[in-house]
Each structure stands twice: as C-alpha cells, then as structure tokens.
Amino acid sequence: MSATLYIIGVGPGDPDLLTVKALTLLRQCPVIATPTASLKGHSTALAIVRQALSAKEMQEKEIVELHFPMQKIHRDQEPEAEVLQAWQEAVQKIVAKLRQGKSVAFPTLGDPAIYSTGYYLYMTITEIYPQAGVRFVPGISAMSSCSANTSAPLCLGDDMLAVIPATFSDKRLRQVLESFDTIVLMKVHKVMDTLIPLLHDLHLIENAILVERVGMTDERVMSDLTVFLGKEGQVQQVHYFSTIIVKKRDSFVRLRSKITHTFLAPRTA
Amino acid sequence: MSATLYIIGVGPGDPDLLTVKALTLLRQCPVIATPTASLKGHSTALAIVRQALSAKEMQEKEIVELHFPMQKIHRDQEPEAEVLQAWQEAVQKIVAKLRQGKSVAFPTLGDPAIYSTGYYLYMTITEIYPQAGVRFVPGISAMSSCSANTSAPLCLGDDMLAVIPATFSDKRLRQVLESFDTIVLMKVHKVMDTLIPLLHDLHLIENAILVERVGMTDERVMSDLTVFLGKEGQVQQVHYFSTIIVKKRDSFVRLRSKITHTFLAPRTA
Questions:
Q1: Which end of chain B has fewer CB atoms < 10 Å from its terminal CB, N or C?
Q2: Half-sphere exposure (Cβ direction) of A228: Cα atoms closer than 13 Å
Q3: Domain end: B140, B175, B195, which one?
Q4: Which of A107, A140, A173 is the last residue of a domain?
Q5: pLDDT tens for residues A145-171?
Q6: Which residues of A, range 63-82, sit inside 8 Å of B by Cβ?
C-alpha cells in the first residue's frame, strides 16, 4: 500500500511560509483530514491551506472532519477510555482512506516538532494500524517567524535557548529565566497574571516582547509589557496564540525601533 | 530607496524545504550575496539556491562574493579591528548594490533564528548604513527537519526544550541535560570525546541520536551512539553539520525501528 498519511506543518499563518514540499504534498493528496472547527488552532491550519491552494484545487479535495475531544492528554498517563475511543474513531476515518489507496494530508499549525497534536494522531494510528505509512513535513514555527519579523535571532554565538510552557511553577520558570539567554514562553495567555510580575521581579520585563497571532494578517507585537503591571486579577486580553520571547543579549530594547507590526512580503501570484 | 537586503533561511539542504516566500524573493532579487566558498556552510546555502532555481534564473543573477574572516566573533566583546574591517568591506559591496536600487538576497543555511551568521551581517549593515532596508525570512531549521525525519517531536505537552552549543563546560551541560526533557546539542563535532562519556554517565546515551547533514542527500542518522564509547582520544569522524538530540520522553529508543536514513519526498517538477 503506497497511500501515506502526511502530517504537514503549514507555518504560523502566512500561506507563503509553507514549504514547497508542503504545498506539493497538499496538492497531491486527494484527502485532507482536519479536526472539527471547534478545536482552536486547527481550523486555522485548514484556513492557511485554503489560502495556499486555488479554489479549484480545494473543490477537488475530500475533507475528512475528525472529532477530537478537547481534553488535554497527559503523556505519562493513559488517556481516559472515552478520550481514547474518540481518538481511535477519528483515526479509523483516516485508515479507511488509506485502505482505499488515498493519501491523506493532516495540516498542523506551525511546525509539527513544537507542541503539535499531530503526534497524538501519529501515536494513535501506529498503535491501531501499524502498517500505515506516516510522514512528517516540517514547518516554520511561530517562534522562528517571530524572530524573523523582529530581526532578532533566537540564539547566536554561544547562546542557550529554552522553549518552555509558561504554565510551569514560578520556581521552575524562574530557574530557566535566570540561566538561559533566550527563553521562549509558550501558552502564556492563561498565566499573564503571575508571569508578568515574575518577569518584572527578575528585571527581565524590558527584555521581553509578546507576539500575538504571528504571521497572520492581524499579527500584533507588544514591545512594552509593563502595561500589564499592576493589573493582576483582571482578565488580560491576550490571544490564545500568544508567545513571549525573553532575550538577554541583543535584547529587544535596542531593536524596538525596528519592530514592525506586520511583515507581509508580496504574495506569490 | 526600495531596494532591500533579504536574509533568507533556505532550510537544511532539500531545496523543497524552502518556503514559497523564500523562493519568490530569491527569484525577484537581481543580486545574490554569498560568503566565499571557503566558509563552511555558506557554499552549501548557495548550492541549495542553485538547486531551487532554474539554470536560466541563476544565469541572470549577479553573484556578489563576500570575504568574511573565519574567525569566531564573540558577541560581548568588540571584534578585532581587522575582522571588523573585513566585515565592513564585505557589507559595502552589498550597500553599493542597494544604492543602485537592486535588492540583494543573502541565503543562509537552515533558519536565520538559530545560530546564523546572517545576524552579524545585519548588525554590521545597520551600523554603517542605517537607512538600509533589511528583512529576515524564516527557514526550516536542522533540528526541525531532524524531528520530522525521525517522527519524533522536539516537545509535546508540557515538555521543556533546550537548544545549546555542546561546547559548554561539562558542569553546565550536565545541568541542562538533567533538567530538560529534550536537549538539542549543536556544534558537537569538536567535543565528541567528552560529550559521549557525559551522556553515558547520565544514562542518556540510549536516548540520543546523532544526525549528520540533515536534509541533504547524504543525510545520516546514527541511533546507537555507544559505538563511540571507549574511543576517546581518537578523531571521531562526524561531520561539521552534526546535531545530537537527546529525548527523555518518547525517547528514540522505541522509535528506532521507524528511523529512516533519508526521507526524500518526490521533487517538485
């Protein structure tokens, strides 16, 4: 069986940030599998594909909607039986297409290497249908796009880079913030109340920027995070797709004048 | 002046891993600036461009060779006067083209966000010609490509990822290796003699893979690093473009059977 499931990183938003390989495979696969629109992030991945392909190309695609439970899956413990069953049912839909000899593309936002649900799909499919051919196609990550848009490297020379979810304990966050040169904080939208005072405490607030919806047409770069200080307890209006980057060397301070709010290169015809 | 210097990540080797944006800009820029072939890595970036563009497109390009000294630049100290002068002379060649209204593409291997000399170029040009328009275009990094090719995420769930040069002291390396879930070790080729015993000491050698020339046609993935044990003092034949990835969760151990030595998707016509 030569049909393959391709788990494809489609980049952070700008369809021109798809790789040639991603675009080619999206064109070649007759089936596109996508989680139902209710799942944050995934409707966005499909929206990027819709912008990258022509209307005619999209019309010819068979779209398979997968119903994944929103519930967070903890990797070190078995997911609950009903979650597991929902995943298996979703995967069966893909397997059915593969058995018909149809390759399936599963677009995922950013880069599958960095916190992508594409791997849960991979783990489920290799468990219930081990003979499935599955390939990953790398994509441009949000942090990489953010670095380019702010003309600031994530790491240079002998810098040490850490990428961590901001949802860790203050103690662990503090340790990483103290010992690394560049720290990319993911999933910040729920913890702004504690994260901002921590950055202030560590005298790092001047070295931090927040980027919302990087690479999308409504991208926003906030270079002054002190506006959040003293507003603990209030719901902070930052978007689900927000990343904070803290840089100690070549900090954003000197680069702020160069920060542009959007960088949209001429679209390809 | 609308001429712009584009510092463009061209990915790790496979020309199909260029983004559509990178390809479009490389086609549009009449000038391609590239360090002389003697500089490791940079002739490779130009070679990728040559594969991505047609022979006719390449013939029409004006290639500007830049003579950068090989000497390492330490960021916290001023480079030596002669190094600085060589950089400034190189940059003047680019400035001359920009002044003629010609946009210049500077291709850089992988992603400019991750240890790219593109930033030294940027810092020099903004210093001597502040009005220059400079834009970065993100690329697929070696570690991202490596993750895709081995079907193993760099981070998932609440994993913490560290990216560090392996040339740090044993103590600092040990600390990072102990506290993070995934550790990407860059620049390993010179320190294999001390790094391999350290990984063995920490019981992490089974969780490590070494990838040489990721994304290139002669990519090699070594999943058993114990072959290097007991060979300290011998010159280890690993390539300059080598990265070691250590993963504690979903380690490569269970994925080894799936590791393919090359993954070359069908080239685009």
A1: C
A2: 27
A3: B140
A4: A140
A5: 988 988 888 988 888 999 999 988 888
A6: 72-76
